[in-house]
Amino acid sequence: MSQLKPMSHIDSAPSTPGKFKMEKASYFNRVRWHTSLAKLAVWSFVFLGAILIFFLRSPASSPVPADLSRRSLRTYNWGGPVWEKRVRASAQIRSRNGFAVLVTGAAGFVGTHVSAALKRRGDGVLGLDNFNDYYDPSLKRARQGLLERSGVYIVEGDINDEALLRKLFEVVPFTHVMHLAAQAGVRYAMENPGSYVHSNIAGFVNLLEVCKSVNPQPAIVWASSSSVYGLNTKVPFSERDRTDQPASLYAATKKAGEEIAHTYNHIYGLSLTGLRFFTVYGPWGRPDMAYFFFTRDLLKGKSIPIFEAANHGTVARDFTYIDDIVRGCLGALDTAEKSTGSGGKKRGPAQLRIFNLGNTSPVPVSDLVSILERLLKVKAKRNIMKLPRNGDVQFTHANISYAQMELGYKPTTDLQSGLKKFVRWYLNYYSGGKKAVE
Ligand SMILES: NC(=O)c1ccc[n+]([C@@H]2O[C@H](COP(=O)([O-])OP(=O)(O)OC[C@H]3O[C@@H](n4cnc5c(N)ncnc54)[C@H](O)[C@@H]3O)[C@@H](O)[C@H]2O)c1
Asked: Where is the NAD-dependent epimerase/dehydratase domain (predicted)?
C-alpha cells in the first residue's frame, strides 16, 4: 500500500508542468472535485443529447449496429416501407428472362447510359450512387432526373455502406451487379489519393463481401480501365500483356481491383467480369475529361493545352463512343455465367474474365481539337506543352478481338460522328436547350 501513495500524488498533478504547488494540494483537490462534478453533469447532458439526435436522424428500418458502421460515411436517408417499395418497383423485371441489376455509379456518365439501356430492354434496374462532388454534382442530378423519368430509381449511398448493401439485397435478390462506381481520373490522385482507396479498393471489397455472402450470389460485371497497361509500349494492348507498371494511383487501384476480383472468384465462386474501358466519350460525359473541357474552353476562347511526349512524340487516345461501351457492358452481362457459391462458400469453379473495350483506332489529341474546331466553328489557341509525369500515358490502343469473339463487341462510331453527338448535347445542355449544332 505504501508504494501506492506517491502514485496518488502523480494522479492529482495537473497536466501542465510547473503549475503544481504541493502545499495547496488539498484545496485544489476540493475545487477540482466540484469542477469535475459540474463537468460530468455538463458532459452527461451533451452525451445524452447527442444520442437523442443520433436516433432521431436514423432511418426507421436500419438496425443500430448498421448505423454505427455508417459513422465514417455521410448520413444518407434510406429505409422504411415507402423506400423499399420504390426500390422493388425500380428493380422489377419486365421482360422474359430479364435480369435484376444493381448498377453502382448510376448517376455517373457510363452508369446512366447503361442503366437506361437495361431499363429499355425490360431488365429491372436499381441505381446506387453517393453523388460526390469530384465534378459538378448538378450534372449527376440531371442524369438522375433522366433516369427517374425512365423508371430507374437511384439510391443515394456509398458502396462502403455494408448495412445499406445488405438491405438492398434483402429487398431485391439481384441476379447481376454492374459495378461502375469508382473514383475516376488520373490527375486527381495526386490531390486526393484517399478517395481512390476509399472507392476503388475498400468500396469494391465491401461490395464483393456482400455479394459473396448473399444467396443466390449475383454475377458481377465491373469497370477496370485501360490505364492498367501503364507504361506498356507494345501495341495494341492485349488482355495478355503485362499490367504491372501503372503510371498513376488510379491505375494501381484498378489493377488492385483485378487482383481482388481474382481472389473472390477463387475463394467464393463469384462470377466476375472486368472491363477495361478505353477513354469513353459522348453526351452526358465527364467534365474532367479532355474532350469535354476542350469544348468548354474553346467556346470561352481560352487556350487549349496539347501535350507532346519526348522528341515531339504524339499523344493519342483510343476514344470509344459511349453507345459502343454500353453494348459491350450489356454483352458482358448477357454472357456472364452464374456465380457458383452460396452462403459464403464456393461450390465449384466460377467464370473469371477480363476484356478490353476500346475502339482500335487511336487518334492524336491534336486531331480531336481539329474536329472540335470544325464542329464548334471556332479557332483554337493551341498551347503545345510537354506531357507532365502526373499519371497520363503517351497513347492507348486496344486489341478487342477477345471481346469481339466472346461478347460480340463491335464498335461502330468513329470520333468525328461521336463528337458531333457530344457537341450537340453539350450546346443543348448548357444553353438550356436553345442551341444546336449541325
Ligand atoms: N469514362 C472513361 O473514360 C473510363 C475509362 C476507364 C474506366 N472507367 C471506369 O468506368 C466507371 C464509370 O466511369 P464514369 O466515366 O462513368 O465515371 P463517373 O465519375 O461519371 O461515374 C462514377 C460514379 O460513381 C459514383 N461513386 C464514386 N465513388 C462512390 C462510392 N464510394 N459509392 C457510391 N458511388 C460512388 C460517383 O458519384 C459517380 O457518379 C468507373 O469505374 C471508371 O473508373 C471510365
From this structure: 101-338
